[in-house]
Amino acid sequence: MVIEKQLESTLPCCVIEHSETVENYLKAVFHMSSVGEPAATTTLIAERLGVAPPSVSAMVKRLEENDLVSHAGRGRVVLTDHGREHALAVVRRHRLLETFLHRFLKMGWDEVHVEAERLEHALSPRLEDRIDEALGFPTRDPHGDPIPPKHGPHDEAWGMPLDRTAPGCLFLVERISDRDSAALRYLAELGILPGVELTVQERAPFDGPLWVELGGQRYALGSTLTRLIHGTVLPATGQATTVSTDLTSGA
User: Fold this and answer.
1) pLDDT digit string, tens, across residues 48-64
2) In contact, 169 and 237? CB cutoff 8 Å
3) Beta-carbon neighbour count of residue 184 at 10 Å?
4) Where are the beta strands (DSSP E) in 17-125?
5) Could you state, in order of their start, the residue ranges of all structural domains in the chain?
6) How far apart, in whole angstroms, are the C-alpha atoms of residue 95 and residue 101?
7) What class has domain 160-234?
8) Residue 171, strand partner residues
9) At the top level of CATH, which class does the domain 1-157 belong to?
10) Are the CB atoms for 224 and 230 separated by under 8 Å?
11) Pick from 158, 220, 152: which is nearest to 186 by CA?
């Protein structure tokens, strides 16, 4: 497969060159501004990207001069409408690549994030469209993350975290954060994937684990895991539409 280099030059709507670095900053601000993430500040962006705070300050200034980000209160950095449009384009390529790598190349859902990070900056619009078509125009990636449409509105809402769900509830898993590969492998071994329903049974006292039931088996999940899992509390009947992510355990 040949992947065409796409973003070496300035895009028609921008003065700034949309390099890999620029795209990574826009994507970082997008993720940190989403539900369940801390607000994007210079310090937190530096930690997320592994760069020095002065470098972040300089880049944020460039992005602000090009109407891609703006400053909000308490030192927060937010995307402008223009910046969000470009961030969503990167997120779309990333999640399409994750889905392609998982479904066609049979890579584990714990492996695809790192590979997609490398490839997302080099994917041409033509190849992006071909991958989307070959996948059948998916709306979710293997982790349950919504794939932004090429045109139109996008909802990035994360839903209820499992760690805030009360005992006795039936919980539909919709999304699981892809930032911890070891946690993803463990959850896949338990069968806790997007689209499954868990019964939340009890929480052990003194910050103990949350006990859930799945397929007749009880599992104790620590806070590190329950904070990664998001979804919807179902009515007592358990009637709901499940999320399709094309994820198979142990793939």
Assistant:
1) 999 999 999 999 999 99
2) no
3) 24
4) 69-71, 77-79
5) 1-157, 160-234
6) 10
7) mainly beta
8) 198, 233
9) mainly alpha
10) no
11) 220
